[in-house]
Amino acid sequence: FLLALIVVFFTRHDGTAAPPRPQPATPQAQPNSAEDETSAESILAKLDQEMETNHLYRNESLSLNEIARKIRVPARQVSSAVNTLRAMNVPKYVNTFRIRDACRILEETDMPVTEVIFAVGFTTKSNFNREFQRVTGLNPSEWRSRACSASESRPHVDSVRVREQVSET
After folding, report:
1. Is the distance from CB of 143 to CB of 132 less than 8 angstroms?
2. Which domain CATH number covers 140?
């Protein structure tokens, strides 16, 4: 009986199956790329400010959600701004600030590298070494020895910058 009731409910009077009901169309806003870019730039400016001023990157358990909460912007927009304007994901972006700070500490102090690792927000030596090499092209000991050596051209912390995507097409 129940099966018969279902069949009757889903068929037309002429015995053919009823077509599915059309869903109401929801208008989708066309993205305004100039407006999106300006918004991404302002988000990144806020994020850069927070990183520089408050050393947010030193928090070893820093997450995208925490970053978003700190700058009061939805996480998806933060991620999109970093991906679009810096051509990297949020963890690489954060690690670039950590490495820049590590370079400064290595240049200015005699702090052991293992202490530098934790001071700048890394939790493992292997991740620190991999990221240091990615950002600077050197390992931490090489960086420090070049910074201390008067005979070689000295790398300087200012040369380690957050990479910006440059399109040369």
Report:
1. yes
2. 1.10.10.60
Residue 47 lies in a domain: yes
Q: How many domains does the chain have?
A: 1
Tell me, yes or no, whether 20 lies in a domain. no
Give me the DSSP letters along the chain.
-HHHHHHHHTB-TTSSBPPPPPPPP---PPP-HHHHHHHHHHHHHHHHHHHHHH-GGG-TT--HHHHHHHHTS-HHHHHHHHHHHHSS-HHHHHHHHHHHHHHHHHHH----HHHHHHHTT-S-HHHHHHHHHHHHSS-HHHHHHHHH-SSSPPP-GGG----------
The mean pLDDT value for 141-169 works out to 57
Q: Identify whether 70 is part of a domain.
A: yes
Cα of 68 vs its chain's centroid, Å: 11
The tokens describing 7, both together, are 């069949």
Q: Decide if 43 contacts 78 (C-beta within 8 A).
A: yes
pLDDT in tens, 42-61: 999 999 999 999 999 999 99
In a domain, 121, yes or no: yes
Asked whether residue 63 carries a pLDDT value surpassing 80, the answer given is yes
